[in-house]
Design brief:
Blueprint (H helix, E strand, L loop, with lengths): L2 H15 L8 E6 L5 H15 L5 H18 L10 E7 L9 E6 L9 E5 L5 H7 L4 E7 L3 E8 L2 E9 L13 H27 L6 E8 L3 H7 L5 H4 L2 E6 L4 H11 L8 H18 L4 E3 L1 H9 L3 E7 L4 H13 L3 E5 L4 H8 L3 E5 L5
Parallel strand pairs: 5-8, 8-9, 11-12
Antiparallel strand pairs: 1-2, 1-4, 2-3, 5-6, 6-7, 10-13, 11-13
Helix pairs in contact: 2-3, 9-12
Length: about 375
């Protein structure tokens, strides 16, 4: 999924989660990839018969009507879609005595492996939510002889998993100690710290090694190179190292600097793509303000004039407004980019009101 597809998928789930049944009357059905659709339809017809035994009249009617609408909807499909299907039906009005039975369906971005039928007060969306978890995961190690951080880059979010400090003494000889002994103590302390870093990395990375697209290592000085050269790191993880970067920082600043510097290795990752789009916007904002605009009203005006080349919408923007602007922009031939709130540039866009645009031409 690209960012835009992910946003629409997330919006679909959010809408389902906002619906609440008065009783166990909301129907959720997951149909696995390759499963016979007729068997599902027959099963739902049987459930209609079972639902006639529900004592509460309003609940009984809502379940039977929801199942009927779902069966009619499924009959529109010639066969189960390639990745399976998730279907939901129920009364979308929570006020007692009011009724609006609707059916929602989606072919998920990943194959459905679970067959499920459930009536509850909420729709079952956990299976869909698990598909939202980003698959672009990179391990991060930032270190020198004083401190180290182990983290993960997940899509556009940097997670700091562990911070460690060493007991490695400085290079200045302590008073009263021979230079040889002092250097020996220092080397042993460096080795112990390197082992601790490796153990922490293995603890965090080995359980997810299949999901890891690569490992980035960085830091000031030569300690990072020695760490890798002297085989402290587990061989399975060592094979996943895709970049070693010289940094000016350690700590959490170092994690961010490592991601910034490893752009070639991350050329296909989501965070770089977002940064490139937003960097273009901010560069134009700084030197050519006529070629950009931001704020809902100003962007709406630019869309109406057909002046928008790229519409930038933060994930933080109200779904209804975002969908309206997106539709209008695409009708005018503009590109639409959904920007997460997990990257630095994404936060900056949110602070600007969450809506901005790169223009084809300046508005007078």
């Amino acid at each position: 999924m690209n960012t835009k597809e992910k946003y629409k998928f997330k919006r679909f789930i959010t809408n389902l989660d906002s619906i609440r049944g008065r009783h166990t009357e909301l129907v959720s059905v997951y149909i696995p990839a390759g499963y016979d659709l007729n068997k599902i339809i027959n099963h739902l017809a049987q459930e209609q018969g079972t639902a006639s035994n529900i004592k509460d009249k309003a609940t009984r009617d809502n379940v039977i009507n929801s199942l009927e609408k779902m069966i009619r909807h499924l009959r529109l499909f010639n066969k189960t879609p390639e990745k399976g299907l998730a279907v939901f039906a129920g009364n979308t009005l929570s006020k007692e005595g009011k009724k609006d039975i609707q059916v929602f369906s989606i072919e998920p971005p990943e194959p459905v492996n679970t067959r499920l039928y459930r009536c509850d007060q909420t729709f079952v969306t956990d299976i869909l939510k698990s598909m939202l978890e980003t698959r672009d995961i990179y391990g991060l190690i930032v270190m020198d002889n004083r401190e180290a951080n182990v983290g993960l880059l997940k899509g556009t979010r940097i997670d700091n998993l562990a911070h460690m400090t060493s007991g490695v003494p400085g290079k200045i000889k302590a008073g009263g100690q021979s230079a040889v002994r002092f250097e020996s103590l220092r080397e042993n302390a460096v080795k112990e710290f390197s082992k601790r870093i490796a153990e922490t990395a293995q603890l965090e990375f080995l359980p997810i090694k299949k999901e890891l697209k690569g490992i980035l290592i960085g830091g000031p000085g030569h300690s990072k190179n020695e760490f890798l050269d002297k085989d402290y790191l587990n061989n399975e993880l060592k094979q996943k190292v895709i970049a070693i970067e010289d940094l000016g920082y350690t700590g959490e600043f170092g994690l961010q600097e490592l991601v910034d510097k490893a752009k070639i290795a991350l050329a296909k990752s989501e965070i770089l793509r977002e940064e490139q789009i937003m960097n273009k916007f901010f560069e134009l904002l700084a030197r050519d303000t006529d070629k950009v605009t931001y704020g809902e009203n100003e962007v709406r005006k630019a869309i109406d004039y057909g002046a928008v080349d790229t519409l930038l919408i933060s994930e933080s923007v109200n779904d209804k407004i975002a969908e309206e602007l997106e539709t209008k922009a695409e009708e005018k031939g503009a590109k639409v980019e959904i920007i997460s709130v997990e990257s630095r540039s994404g936060v900056q866009l949110k602070d600007l009101g969450g809506i901005a645009a790169i223009l084809r031409y300046a508005l007078q």
